Amino acid sequence: MATDSAFLLRRRHFLGLLGAGAAAQAGLPGLAFANSPFADTPHDNRLVMIFLRGAMDGLSAVPPYGDPNYQNLRGKLALAEPGAPQGVLPLDGHFGLHPALAPIHPLFALGELAVVHATAGGYDTRSHFDAQDLLEMGLTQRRGQFSGWLNRTLGDIDHGDAQARLGLAVGGTVPLMLRGPAQVDSWEPPHMRPVDPILIDAMTRLYAHDKLFGAALADAINTDSLSGVDPMVLNPARAQPSIPPAASARPKPKPGQAFMDLMRAAGHLLSTPQGPRIAMADLNGWDTHVAQGAGTGRLAQALTVLANGLDTLRTSLGPAWRNTVVVTVTEFGRTAAPNGTDGTDHGTASATFLLGGAVKGGVHGDFPGLAANALLENRDLRMASDLRGVMKGVLAEHLGVPRGHLDTVIFPDSAAIRPMDGLLKV
Amino acid sequence: MNRAFVAMTRFGYGAGSDDSEARAVASDPQGWLKAQLDHPDEPSSLQGLPSGADQMVQLLDFRFQRRQAILARKAGGMADDNGAAAAEQQQASRLRGKDVQNVYLAEVGGRVGAAIQSRTPFYERLVAFWGNHFTVSGRQRPEVRPLSGSFEREAIRPHVTGKFHDMLLASTRHPAMGLFLDNAVSVGPDSPAGLRNHRGVNENLGREIMELHTLGVDGGYTEEDVRALARILTGWSIGRLNAPEPGRFRFFPALHEPGPKQFLGRTIPESGEEEGMIALAMLASHPSTAHHLALQLAKHFVADNPPPAVVQRLALAYMKSGGDLGIVTRTLVAQPETWSQFGSKIKTPYDFVISSARALGRPIEARFAANSFNILGQPLFGAPSPAGWPDDAASWTGPEAVMLRLQWAQAFAERGHDETDPSLLTRAALMGMADAGLTQAVARAESRPMAVAMLLGSPMFQRR
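Predict the joint structure of the above. Result:
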């Protein structure tokens, strides 16, 4: 209980800062203190973490279509060759992108999109909650503390202003990765987002034996009764007018609009001279046990949402994109072969995207391959790159976090995990 | 069905996030309920909130200043500073609006805090039930807005286990009710003031007392009785600013309609304020009132269509005890039917929000609470009519309402820091009564907030 009220106080502080100043500055929030003295210091670099909750299937997002076992192993989930309808978008001839990621595909040619394949957190669990906690705490086993590695990183960033809040949670909550001793701010959209399709699916099943709720929900889905209603303002005193609205009015939100709104807000706040420098957002929708699909289907929808959001973030950051690294992480990968319901079950390694002007594009790291003897327990893509190593590489080069801290404070007891080199432009 | 779960869910605001209370209830669920009637918590969240008289004085003062300003402007005619005076008046109205909103939010915070933290949640449910029975709505009548919380604290809360007659008297005489149902401005046409100013009776309060608060619409009264009660209550008003006790109930003989009144087949001789006391006592002891209140209680706590036997027993307890609500309430929790029909009631939006907060062990900020109630269609202290909020399933489970609850559950789940495993939260909140489908869905959800939203959206959580 104490956590929550303390958090609310901090949030109020943040919105107080944004609210009044922004109103006077006509769309340039935060510029009450113009002329940042911090330009071109390490503080000017931005990091955005996006947590894909539910375990993204890395073999669908970044298909190794050049692997000789790909088509056979993936079966119904295999994507068509590049050039075919809904075919793979080629990267380096061996790996490609899922076609739903088309909005970010041009970044690869620009050298602003990197992929590290076969990444995992280094822990041994296939439970969503456990794995998410461990990944966010930067641990491979539970121990007493309950703070996030991204929060612990905040103390290591040289920014010259001890009062500045460098961390920003975008969305309704502060994810564990960003919780801890350092105070962080949060931005929350004023409107409640529509009910997640995943939640609607789950509730449809839970209401199957309840006539009253079942019939009401079915009716609501059929008539799409919410779409005609004005968005519901949950926090009218907050939020406004810090984030300029989308360019065009939108009577009916399209899929992924809520995430695009979050990314627009994140880009806007991160690009302000004395704004936050490290942001984090969650994106649900990756637990594709059923009807995952290949070129279309549930996973394609989730990837569309992700790609639209990332593209919005890039646009919203403006020139700050140059100094930005965006990293997507997920708690684990999924089984290499389809399960019995045209989906995939919880697995081990997935793929990680790094995007931004500061990123050195390309496909980094090793790939264990899909041969039967290469798979872990004959079912999962094996880990080749520990996510802690990936993050160490980013934190060291991009934010100047010292190696000693990376090995002990940020990712405790991880001296054996070397920072991954070459992820960023020199 | 687990009787402790029924006690906590049906008569309270559900189980908390840790199971210590649930274990204590388990040994004697009915005893746990009855003990609350004897020793209710005094919610700390309600301390320091303004009194009804205090708020009434502020309202009277605002009206007085406004009237003065208007008079001054009229006197000034087309004088140059007319624009400035108008702007000043606008500014005063704006400030007043802000004050009112702050009081309202403080009241929402107090009410919500009491409901979430209380160790005697049954008592809080009773306060809410009777507060709704004697609705004063700031949404219908904005001037009432800053008084609705004090009304409940002063006129309802002290009497929910006492005599109904006392509650009826306190609510009828509270300035919030006088304002809300217009009795404060009702004038006997043959009273000195009525003859002088050609003003007359307003029947609003007289009618609602009989239709809603006591006898019920089929309780056997006539239009003549409505008019009689309205005349009987003329002069029951509110002390003016220059009176010794401003903002409190005050009887004004000069507004009171003279002469004897025929009421419910009886002649009430002319006796000023005493006439109203006699009339309210007659209503409180009337068998129709016993039946009406019994039916309302049974509908609220047992089922939308409660077993007639339960209603009869409650009405009998009311009549035998001389309208003792403590005894009636004890009779209610002793009815076997109240324990056997679990799930027949759906939580109202208010109860849904409160029980969600309890289940997750989270406080709710006043503004978030107020907005949540608005979104879910049940603004606190803002019922659409003097009849108060409905609490039947049909009123709250339309397609859009059900979807809105899911949307709210999702938003609430996402704004928290629940470090507890959602499976443990589910076990605590539903006290082990979750079915296999829900248990599995929560365990397999792809994120904690998603799992928590499933718990809150589940029929088992929304029913009682």
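Residues 1-41, 225-231, 235-251 of chain A have pLDDT under 50 and may be disordered.
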